[in-house]
Amino acid sequence: MSVWATLKYFKQDEFNSPDEPGSGINMHGIFLKMLDELRERVGEPLSVSSGYRTFRFNKTLIGKGAVEDSAHTKGFASDLECESGALRFKIIEKALAIGFLRIGVGETFIHLDCDPSKPQQVLWLY
């Protein structure tokens, strides 16, 4: 059974790279299960503003907060829309409890990833 069939809150097309329809299929199953659990614990809708990224699309974002070896290109990361301080706190609190150990905080989004090839237990600002 596909991991997509087991998710309660998220659909594959929410994670597509803007330049490649259907590319959300490249998201990592462990990450998706963690994100679905986060949505359950937060108790309100979460919108994905950036999921999987092709290398080509990611290149257009370098220097604007993205890095060349982005966890997005491996299917281990997503940015969630977030403009309220209360929701930002709730997302970070629940994400840490679930086991997300890589969190980036922007003015309008929260970046979450579980890329095992990158330093763990880090929190950064955009």
In short:
This protein has 126 residues and is α+β, with helices and mostly antiparallel strands.
Search tags:
4 helices, 31% helix, alpha+beta, Muramoyl-pentapeptide Carboxypeptidase, domain 2, 5-stranded mixed sheet, 126 residues, single chain
Blueprint of the fold:
Elements: H1 3-6, H2 29-42, E1 48-50, H3 55-61, E2 77-81, H4 85-98, E3 102-105, E4 109-113, E5 122-125
Parallel strand pairs: 3-5
Antiparallel strand pairs: 1-2, 2-4, 3-4
Could you describe the 3D structure shown?
Helices cover 31% and strands 17% of the residues. The chain is globular and about 35 Å long. The protein has four helices and five strands. α2 packs across α4 (85-98). The longest helix has 14 residues, at 29-42. It is an alpha+beta fold and 126 residues long. It has helices at 3-6, 29-42, 55-61, 85-98; strands at 48-50, 77-81, 102-105, 109-113, 122-125.
Question: How is the CATH topology named?
Answer: Muramoyl-pentapeptide Carboxypeptidase, domain 2
- What's the structural domain tally? 1
- The CATH C-level class name: Alpha Beta
Rg, Å, rounded:
13 Å
- Class computed from helices, strands and strand pairing: alpha+beta
Q: In DSSP terms, counting alpha (H) and pi (I) runs of 4 or more, how many helices? A: 4
Which second-level CATH architecture applies?
2-Layer Sandwich
The main sheet orders its strands as: 1-2-4-3-5
**Which band does the percent of strand residues land in?**
15-25%
Query: So what's the oligomer here?
Result: single chain
Termini separation (Å)?
37 Å
> What summary fits the major beta sheet?
5 strands, mixed
The tally of beta strands, per DSSP, is: 5
Order of helices and strands: HHEHEHEEE
Q: Percent helix among the residues?
A: 25-40%
- Average pLDDT, all residues: 96
Low-pLDDT stretches: none
Shape field: globular
